[in-house]
């Protein structure tokens, strides 16, 4: 047992001990490698850091990332000096808003979750989740594109029973939708990505695990039900041995699909996030817990992206095929040319995605790219191709959006922010409500469209002639506009006159 006096003597950058869950650790050598910087650790030097550590780290993070000689022993909890947490006025106001949020049964659509999240999330979390690149034209276009596609419903069909279940990469799904990967779930809720895992298991929906999750990969898999299908989103590490170990571990744990992100050789400039500037201890993702060279002064996105390999290229695809038997999907394809190269490379599918508008601004929406890509793939083999899936994500807020994408040839649709805001606002129950909303909308829209199952969704049921008209009389989306937060310019500091 280590005395509190002994521990308190190690409260500097030269010798920094902290207490987590009643155990003492020497983190001196880790200070400069911490993704969120050393300042937050030094705040708890010589003291109990459990309260700050627990909400944003997997239970074994400190054990796994410090060598055994840095595990110093136990402390008598009665002698520990705990940091008194001072609650700011802004935090008091945020907690008051959480207490007054609308009851879950008053949430009618996915826009509602976003409206609630905007008000109750900490500023840093909202900036990270909602931000997009440069002038944020593409994130808005992702939403607007769906409003330029119109339905052509069929009538007098017996739609007493409609079925929207499907299979995605051979895995059964109760929705033609999967949960697309979004990073750092614990910025918005203490349980982070586990909210998605648990709700998805109950409702037969497939979750894509993000590389940059707040929860550890194994923690997420352990929370899943037996035989619950999971996919993995992969940012490729500069150190390919790390990538290989991660991919093969995922396959051993039963992951059913590998989605390799290919549109992020460098993360885009997300100015809302960058204006938050300095990040704290919740900036880092689990894969970075012991890395150095992490940028800490340009927002959360920059802090978590230092390991991503910009040299990733087509020549790496055979290597990925050699290290795993999981279906490989390239996430972030935008052109027919690259779709054909993916097909020829022998992968099992692509995601038409612009990274939620967070990468190359003024790139086209996945929905718009879908038409050109489907047309060229029809010339390269059977269609639909049972061995090559085409997924779409970005801007989806309604089941009607999903049906439009499916009618135009998508295999399934990914939703990221919609489910993210659901659990940030209401936890696991919010995600379950989001599934129910989508199910109710699917039932209604399929009946009104005259489609009794997903196979009956055909291109003739939609009019996409206006999709490529980027300027014109698109009806205003009031719900989206009400939650969209415009960019702001640099501001003068307040000064005394």
TrEMBL record:
Q: Which cofactor does it need?
A: FMN; heme b
Segments traversing the membrane: none
User: Domain Cytochrome b5 heme-binding, which positions?
Assistant: 1-76
Could you tell me which Pfam families the record lists for this protein? Cyt-b5, FMN_dh
The chemistry this enzyme catalyses reads: (S)-lactate + 2 Fe(III)-[cytochrome c] = 2 Fe(II)-[cytochrome c] + pyruvate + 2 H(+)
Q: What is its main location?
A: mitochondrion
Q: One GO BP annotation here?
A: lactate metabolic process
Q: Which UniProt keywords apply?
A: Flavoprotein, FMN, Heme, Iron, Metal-binding, Mitochondrion, Oxidoreductase, Transit peptide, Transport
Q: EC number(s)? A: 1.1.2.3
Segments forming domain FMN hydroxy acid dehydrogenase: 102-467
The record's section on Gene3D superfamilies has: Aldolase class I, Cytochrome b5-like heme/steroid binding domain
Molecular function GO terms recorded = heme binding; L-lactate dehydrogenase (cytochrome) activity; metal ion binding
Q: Which domain of life is it from?
A: Eukaryota
Q: Which PROSITE patterns match?
A: CYTOCHROME_B5_1, CYTOCHROME_B5_2, FMN_HYDROXY_ACID_DH_1, FMN_HYDROXY_ACID_DH_2
State a GO cellular component annotated for this protein. mitochondrial intermembrane space
UniProt subcellular location? Mitochondrion intermembrane space
Q: According to its UniProt record, which protein family does this protein belong to?
A: In the C-terminal section; belongs to the FMN-dependent alpha-hydroxy acid dehydrogenase family.
Q: Which PANTHER family does the annotation name?
A: L-LACTATE DEHYDROGENASE (CYTOCHROME), S -2-HYDROXY-ACID OXIDASE-RELATED
This protein's assembly is summarised as:
Homotetramer.
Full protein name: L-lactate dehydrogenase (cytochrome)
**Origin species:** Lentinula detonsa
């Amino acid at each position: 047992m280590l005395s509190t006096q002994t521990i308190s003597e190690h409260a500097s950058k030269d010798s920094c001990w902290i207490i987590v869950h009643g155990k003492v650790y020497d983190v001196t050598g880790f200070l400069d490698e911490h993704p969120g910087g050393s300042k937050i650790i030094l705040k708890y030097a010589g003291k109990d850091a459990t309260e700050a550590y627990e909400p944003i780290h997997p239970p074994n993070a400190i054990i796994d990332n410090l060598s055994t000689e840095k595990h110093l022993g136990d402390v008598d909890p009665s002698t520990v000096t705990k940091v008194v947490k001072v609650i700011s006025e802004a935090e008091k106001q945020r907690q008051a808003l959480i207490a007054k949020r609308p009851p879950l049964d008053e949430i009618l659509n996915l826009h509602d979750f976003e409206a609630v999240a905007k008000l109750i999330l900490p500023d840093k979390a909202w900036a990270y989740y909602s931000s997009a690149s440069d002038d944020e034209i593409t994130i808005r276009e992702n939403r607007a594109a769906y409003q330029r596609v119109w339905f052509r419903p069929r009538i007098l069909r017996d739609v007493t029973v409609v079925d929207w279940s499907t299979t995605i990469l051979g895995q059964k799904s109760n929705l033609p939708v999967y949960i697309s990967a979004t990073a750092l779930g614990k910025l918005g809720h203490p349980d982070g990505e586990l909210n998605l895992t648990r709700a998805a298991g109950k409702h037969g929906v497939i979750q894509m695990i993000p590389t940059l999750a707040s929860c550890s990969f194994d923690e997420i898999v352990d929370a899943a039900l037996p035989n619950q299908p999971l996919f993995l989103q992969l940012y490729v590490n500069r150190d390919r041995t790390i990538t290989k170990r991660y991919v093969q571990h995922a396959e051993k744990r039963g992951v059913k699909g590998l989605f390799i992100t290919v549109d992020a050789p460098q993360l885009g400039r997300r100015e809302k996030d960058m204006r938050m500037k300095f990040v704290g201890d919740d900036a880092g993702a689990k894969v970075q817990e012991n890395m150095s060279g992490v940028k800490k002064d340009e927002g959360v996105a920059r802090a978590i992206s230092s390991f991503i390999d910009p040299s990733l290229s087509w020549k790496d695809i055979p290597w990925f095929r050699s290290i795993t038997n999981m279906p490989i999907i390239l996430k972030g394809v935008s052109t027919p040319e690259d779709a054909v190269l993916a097909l020829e490379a022998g992968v099992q599918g692509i995601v038409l995605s612009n990274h939620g508008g967070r990468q190359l601004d003024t790139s086209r929406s996945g929905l718009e790219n879908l038409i050109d890509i489907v047309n060229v793939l029809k010339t390269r083999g059977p269609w639909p191709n049972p061995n090559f899936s085409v997924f779409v994500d970005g801007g989806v807020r309604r089941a009607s959006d999903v049906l439009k994408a499916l009618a135009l040839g998508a295999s399934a649709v990914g939703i990221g922010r919609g489910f993210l805001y659901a659990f940030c606002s209401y936890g696991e129950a919010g995600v379950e409500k989001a599934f129910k909303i989508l199910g109710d909308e699917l039932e209604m829209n399929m009946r009104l469209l005259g489609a009794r199952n997903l196979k009956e969704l055909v291109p003739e049921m939609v009019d996409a002639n206006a999709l490529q008209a980027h300027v014109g009389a698109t009806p205003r989306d009031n719900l989206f506009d009400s939650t969209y937060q415009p960019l702001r310019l640099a501001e003068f500091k307040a000064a005394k006159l």
